[in-house]
Write a structure and sequence with these properties.
- By secondary structure, the chain is mostly helical.
- It is about 60% helix and about 0% strand.
- The N and C termini lie far apart (about 70 Å).
């Protein structure tokens, strides 16, 4: 029974959030470490591409985590650290791109697609409504239809 409980608790522990930050990377100052974690959560791992550097085990992600912590320990602001990493790796390193003129298409595309889709549905509905209104059946056609529908 004890083994079963131990296995169950280990399973529950594995369901929680996992971070790839190694103990040797953690800063001694809790405030700086919290800032480093917040910045690391915003930066994309260039190897994994769908994970933040805080979640990735890749060597490049580790190097970036160390770089972030070094810059913070040297007194850089959060924005200065992010700007430094972006200057070295480009805008793609940000998990949430900044709203700038060069990213306006990226931010505006969902709205544009929503408007185009809505307009397409509206036009299709209007066309369908017009097509369904045909000319009424003549008396001869009504008789033929009645004969076809009777058993």
């Amino acid at each position: 029974m004890n083994r079963l409980l131990l296995a169950f608790f280990l399973f529950l522990a594995s369901l929680g959030p996992t971070y790839a930050v190694n103990p040797d990377e953690v800063l001694s100052d809790p405030a700086l470490e919290a800032r480093a974690r917040a910045i690391s959560a915003e930066l994309r791992c260039m190897v994994c591409q769908n994970q933040s550097i805080d979640d990735s085990n890749a060597e490049l992600a580790k190097d970036l985590r160390v770089l972030v912590r070094e810059r913070l320990a040297n007194g850089d602001s959060d924005e200065a650290v992010i700007d430094y990493v972006v200057s070295r790796y480009g805008e793609f390193v940000l998990l949430k791109p900044r709203f700038e003129t060069k990213t306006m298409i990226l931010w505006g595309m969902p709205i544009l697609l929503l408007l185009v889709g809505s307009a397409t549905l509206l036009v299709a509905a209007l066309r369908r409504g017009r097509q369904s209104r045909g000319t009424p059946l003549s008396d001869d056609e009504k008789e033929k239809l009645k004969k076809l529908l009777q058993p």
